Amino acid sequence: MRIADFPKMGRGKQVRFVSEGIGSKGNSDTPELQQASLRDRYPLFFDLLQVLVADCEACAHKSAGWAPILRETLRVIDHMERVCDLKRARELVDGHMLIEKGASPGPRLGKVLEVIHDRILAGEIDTRQDAISAAMDLLADGAKGNEDRPR
To answer: How many domains does the chain have?
Structure first.
C-alpha cells in the first residue's frame, strides 16, 4: 500500500494501514499500548505523514499533495476511536470459531477472514454473530462457485 493511495482506500484498509504501519505487525496487545496516544501507538504512520508533508511543502504543489491525505487520516483516526482496532476485529471472529462452525481450514478461510475483518474495521459488522454469519455466507458462496466450475 502507498500513502498516496490512502484517501482512495476503503475504510477497513485505511484502519489496517494506520494500525499496522507499513510492513510491521500490529502490536496493540499490551495494556500500555492500548492506553498510549495515537502517536505512540502508530509511530511509523505518523513519521510517514511528517515526511509526506515535508516533501509536498518542498515541491511546487505545496499542500495540494498532503492536505487530502491529512484530512482522510483525521477521519480514519476518528473512526478508529469509535470502532477500536484490528485486535477487536480478530477477537470478534477467528479461524478457530469458523472451523468449529464447520468451515474447512485453508487459504480460502484466511481470505474470508480478511474480508470480514475489513468489514468490521469499516464499521459494517458490530457483533460476533454477525461476523460469523457473514463469514459462513462468504464461505458458502465460494463453495457454490467451485461446484459450478467445470473440472
So the answer is: 2
**Structural domain span for residue 22:** 3-83
Q: Walk along the chain (151 residues) in steps of 10 and give the mean pLDDT of each run.
A: 73 73 46 57 75 74 71 78 71 92 93 92 87 94 57 31
Quick one: 72 and 94 in the same domain?
no
- Cell representation of residue 79: 473512526
CB 139 within 8 A of CB 108: yes
Q: What is the pTM of this model?
A: 0.50
The DSSP H or E segment spanning 92 is helix 86-92
- DSSP-derived secondary structure for 23-69: T------SHHHHHS-HHHH-HHHHHHHHHHHHHHHHSTTTHHHHHHH
**CA distance linking residue 44 with residue 30, whole number of Å:** 18
Distances (CA, A) of 13 to 59, 88, 147, 150: 28, 15, 31, 34
The alpha carbon dihedral of 139, 142, 148, 151 has a sign of: negative
Domain co-membership, 15 together with 42: yes
